[in-house]
Specification:
The protein is an all-alpha fold and 195 residues long. The protein contains seven helices and no strands.
């Protein structure tokens, strides 16, 4: 499993890059309309869901392929719903985003727990889950605290979430390289015995 995870580290990095991009767009245009926010979020959730499904198919980072598939399907369904019904109310959008953040966060925490047996420093992966869950809970607790504040909060969450995903991806890449070098040294150091 570890080799699969490190081989596909770039999928995790790409998810992080899209999250950062979404967050930056939300911060650059804080006066964005609810309709534009719905469409932007729908595109982000759709891309993130497709990448999570790709990780599930390829056996990428995660507690199991089934959990990653559930997370991917949730992202795809939420993304399509937001794009098909962009006239959705702001409160309904916030509740959907909050639910998605909590579900995604729980999946990331489960993945970190599964990875702790194979990877040191899996805490980066767990941090993404905690950030996501906290964000979702905050949205549930204060859903109508002002559209601008919500846009900034969503942007901040996306940037933090994406940055931690990118950090975790590059750490997995480095750990995979270290393990491969150790394996090569182990094979190169062994001398065949002749009888």
């Amino acid at each position: 499993m570890f080799d699969q995870i490190t081989r596909h580290w770039w999928v995790l990095a790409l998810r992080g890059a899209f999250a950062v991009l979404f967050g930056v767009v939300a911060w650059v245009w804080p006066g964005i309309t609810v309709l534009a926010l719905v469409v932007l979020f729908g595109a982000y959730a759709l891309v993130d869901g497709v990448m999570a499904l790709a990780e599930a198919v390829r056996g990428g980072p995660g507690a199991s392929r089934a959990w990653r598939a559930v997370s991917g399907v949730a992202g795809v369904v939420l993304g399509i719903a937001a794009l098909v019904w962009p006239g959705i109310t702001g409160l309904a959008l916030l509740m959907l985003i909050a639910a998605w953040a909590v579900i995604t966060g729980v999946m990331e925490i489960i993945a970190a727990i599964a990875l702790r047996k194979e990877v040191h420093g899996e805490w980066l992966y767990a941090v993404t889950g905690v950030i996501s869950v906290v964000f979702g809970v905050l949205l549930f607790a204060w859903p109508v605290s002002g559209a601008l504040a919500v846009v900034w909060l969503i942007g901040l969450f996306s940037i933090l979430f994406g940055a931690v995903l990118i950090g975790a991806a590059f750490r997995l890449r480095r750990l995979g390289g270290d393990r491969r070098r150790e394996a090569e040294r182990g094979m190169g150091g062994a001398t065949p015995t002749h009888s």
